[in-house]
Amino acid sequence: MESISPTLAEVIAEIEAMYDPAWAEDWDAVGLVCGDPDQTVRRILFAVDPVAVVADEAVEWGADLIVAHHPLYLRGTTTVAASTPKGRVVHRLIGNGIALYTAHTNADVAAHGVSDALARAVGLTGPLRPLQPAADDPARGLGRIGTLPEPMTLRRFAARAAAGLPRTAAPLRVAGDPDREVRTVAVCGGAGDSLLATARAAGVDVYLTADLRHHPASEHMEAGGPALIDAAHWATEWPWLPVAADRLTSALAAKGITVEARVSEAVTDAWTATTTDVYPEDEELG
Predict the structure, then answer these.
(1) Is 237 labeled as ligand-binding?
(2) Does 233 carry a binding-site annotation?
(3) 220 is in an annotated binding site
(4) Is 215 known to sit in a ligand binding site?
């Protein structure tokens, strides 16, 4: 079969077959942000955030499409003027013929989605099941529950999780006895404190997610909930990118369509340093 390059519309059809936009939350903004459906796509860059550094990488690499996890305009806008940060991204992409597509909460809940990839990255094995299954499909839903290959201390699992996730400025935070034994683990990519009660009801030993706040976490621990591990938001979602890239290129290849995919390794987490980095221990603060 002769290899051909697809149109943007053909690529989007494959993405949406894997991550149906109908699965997205009502408040979400998924789909094509900019780009001509008839344009040819040869190179696709996958990234968590559609920010300036990612746009620059796409231009330098010669990408035709960015597939981002986070929406560019989640709450809508009245301007794409280049005098605004997001407007500059739009102008840079359009000016270089680069399309932008977002798969957000529809990728969160999908099989082989964000939380599946996170679970595998931190060492969970065997079958995974949703932490909060979708009403119409028990195989789909928020978060995942899985098991470790063997029981281990919370301390050891936290170290294993840190090694499996991309590195960010801040380390993982842990709540619970570091010497307690854990085996069953729940994870949720991105902000997951809305599922604290669900993780407690599931009877897991530890719940790993991002963006945990003081009061919900404190109340969870006081109620005897499972141990908590709080990672960087960006780091919990990045492991999905190579999975999505491989699934898309494989689906297209099965139809004789060839594209080149690349996963951005730009760390776009909002936090760039800790006080240890900014103020070394031997430096006197004044």
Answers:
(1) yes
(2) yes
(3) no
(4) no
Q: What is the mean pLDDT of each run of 10 residues along the chain (286 residues)?
A: 82 98 97 98 98 98 98 93 96 98 98 97 96 95 98 98 96 97 98 97 98 97 97 98 98 95 97 79 52
Write the DSSP string, 114-180: HHHHHHHHTT-EEEEEEEEEETTEEEEEEEEEEEEEEEEEHHHHHHHHHHHSPP-SSPPEEES-TTS
CA distance 74 to 118: 23
Structure confidence at residue 3 (pLDDT)? 63
Are 122 and 192 in a shared domain? yes
105: which strand partners?
Answer: none
Residue with tokens 């690529």: 11
Query: pTM score, two decimals?
Result: 0.94
Say if 188 falls within a structural domain: yes
Beta strands in the chain (DSSP E): 31-34, 43-47, 65-68, 99-102, 125-134, 137-153, 173-175, 181-191, 206-210, 227-231, 260-263
Which residue type does 97 have? G
| Residue 211, Ramachandran bin (φ over 0: left; ψ between -120 and 50: alpha; else beta) | left
Q: What is the CATH number of the domain that holds 118?
A: 3.40.1390.30
112: DSSP letter: T
- Whole-number Å distance between alpha carbons of 145 and 224: 19
CB of 237 closer than 8 Å to CB of 189 = yes
| Distance (Å, whole) CA 47 – CA 35 | 17
Together in a domain, 31 and 172: no
The reply to whether 25 sits in an annotated binding site is no
Q: Which residue has the tokens 């499409």?
A: 65
What is the domain extent for residue 161? Answer: 111-231
